Amino acid sequence: MPDHQPLTDHEAETLDAHWRALNYLSACQLYLRDNPLLAEPLRAEHIKPRLLGHWGTCPGLGLVYTHLNRLVRERGQRALGVWGPGHGAAAVLSGAWLEGTFGELNPDAPRDAEGMLRLFRDFSQPGGIPSHTAPEVPGSLQEGGELGYSLAHAYGAAFDNPDLLVCAVIGDGEAETGPLAASWHSDKFLDPVHDGAVLPVLHLNGYKIANPTVLARLPEEELGALLHGYGYEPLFVTAAPDTPHPEVHRAMAATFDTALGHIRSIQHAARSAGTGTGGPAEGTPHSARPRWPMVVLRTPKGWTGPRELDGAPVEGTWRAHQVPLPGVHDDPEQLRQLEHWLRSYGPRELFDEGGRPLPHVVECVPDGDLRLGSVPEANGGRLLRQLPLPSLKPHGVQVDRPGGGSHEPTRVLGGLLAELLTATEERRDFRLFGPDETDSNHLNGVYEATGRGWQGEYEPTDEHLSPHGRVLEVLSEHMCQGWLEGYVLTGRNGLFASYEGFANIVASMAAQHVKWVHSAREVPWRRPVAGLNYLLTSHAWRQDHNGFSHQDPGFVDHVLSKSPDVVRAYLPPDTNTLLCVADHVLRTRDTVNVVVAGKHPCFDWLDLEAAWAHCARGLGVWEWAGTEREGEEPDVVLACAGDVPTLETLAAASLLREWLPGLAVRVVNVVDLTRLMPPSQHPHGMPDGEFDAVFTRDRPVIFAYHGYPWLVHRLTYRRTAHDRMAVRGYREMGSTTTPFDMVVRNGMDRYHLVMDVVDRTPGLGARAVRARQAAADMRERHHARVREHGTDLPEVTDWRWPGR
């Protein structure tokens, strides 16, 4: 069967009518506040007071939208559009309005003149619709300002979606970004058996805001070689300003048909392989990896718009990027040009007198949920199912007494994740993503359930590679983040495990996802999606062997500066609390959850039942660790958040028992950092009365925190206890050194905490002098030993919680 049949004249005409309608609606969104069908001559009062938007990419996006519609309708292919040049939201909105989806979701904007005018007036106006693709735009799943992420999002959407075609339109400006350059390698991880397909459309219109783009200036042979080297089969479609539109539509239709035929051949061969599993097997030569098609679409920037302004060219130049005729309010000639431009699309040939699209205009539009604005994957909460989370009891570690044993928290978590991966083997809606660190982060228990996804060549020394593996590792945090975002936004669940120090690489991506979720919560028809979950391990306090470059706990600061209704941060102090936190975050909706946990052996403080209660509270007093008398206020509060701060705090508490036996000490552990905030600032915030009951209203608080100390001050600045709070944490004093020397260098060691207690607790006086001197002496002993022997003090390495 041939890949395609040439378009008939009628088909080319109807596709061109749809495209012209898209272009008309897109241009009108930038300019018009009245006279939507140009039923009367255009006047200045018909123009919006503020002209905002991006015209230059709209015609190309509209062309892709039109032909993707045809592919869905004529070939029965379910498809999702990922619009990389999302600043051209007007084109995507036009497509959604023409197909009827926009009016169904926004009843005040039906497919008639009144609804058309509502679309125009709301576009890029206060209280209306943003000029970039956003949650308000049907069929979109990424904010239009996220240049660089479209291809990774597309592959994330395609994973475990075997019947879906994801068409990722990549702007040539976007193609210059680092995340996008890395994302071309996603084809090496796409399983043709269990995954869908991604059809990248590299849209080259020549310019960014003011400069030419790199890829658009490459000769076709060089560009083709580059894309071929990435593993793709590039198909070229080129349109010049004067290329007859029927020729363009015939070329686009033939190219899309050829691409789909190639995709279906790849999938059929893999899915019908004799083993029933398909994909490359161990020892398969590299050439067996599928070479997926992609499209290179060259169109003029601002195509079909004004050719020139005041003697300077506009169409095909950077001047068409935003509003090509900016002076229409005051310049009668520009107003005349605008009217001529809008009428060139023939609105009377596209819409009836009531503003409804004529039948031939929407002939290419598919029905129901096959419409690009209505496809469920673009509103992923419609598809989301609760994960079959395993019981924690078989995975929880036994704790006969606090500190009586130790485990590697992430290794135990790996067993829980393995069971979850097994439980989702058939439904395939959970994946683990990470930058080549699953083994290093001690999560390799997951390989009992699945392998690492890999479509390339296999060598005898490889371990755990599988063409169908659901652990995806690539040494690009941007790709991992983008894959996970695309996966979550299309209705699935996942976890991104990373070294803590390198999470900041995706800080801007995390911020954009938070903004998306925050905005989506305010759109009535958007369904909640699964929480986006980070596990940050190999953290700053245990990167003493790698040194300063790997020591940065600042990702939590970044995330907690964002929308409080979305962001969460958890610092479980031991293995059982990590299990409880993991169970919680994997159940959340419309959140971004950051979990910081260690991979090294860590004392077990709480049994599973106590851990569950402690995590449910978010923070609480550990009565067994303190020396306060029942019914009386403590003399001092020792607070901690994080596994190493908890260790140092409990060690300090044990020293105070020994050196100052009459001192009443309260120990408070914090798991959920946002509990430190007032309810007015965060939904998890603790009411003032409860906060004061835990931290007291007038006693000193010595707080050992995992990250930068000023975060705790920021979270608690409105609390009564704030002025009495001394916070110890990471102070950028990193190095390649011993574990205990790391905490000493940063002033968070047990001896410094004891000294803080002595210095800040009223009434201790002379009876504490010896205790303070003993603590200072131990710090000096440490400095001498670590420089002479390169090891920590036996008093530190051999320390155990003494109990009562």
TrEMBL record:
Residues 7-382 form the Xylulose 5-phosphate/Fructose 6-phosphate phosphoketolase N-terminal domain. It comes from the Bacteria. Its cofactor is thiamine diphosphate. Gene3D superfamilies: 3.40.50.920, 3.40.50.970. It is an enzyme of class 4 (lyase). Residues 599-801 form the Xylulose 5-phosphate/Fructose 6-phosphate phosphoketolase C-terminal domain. Its EC number is 4.1.2.-. Residues 268-289 are annotated as: Disordered. The keyword Lyase applies. Keywords: Lyase, Thiamine pyrophosphate. Belongs to the XFP family. HAMAP family: Phosphoketolase (MF_01403). NCBIfam families: PRK05261.1-4. PANTHER family: PHOSPHOKETOLASE-RELATED (PTHR31273). This is Probable phosphoketolase. It comes from Streptomyces iconiensis.
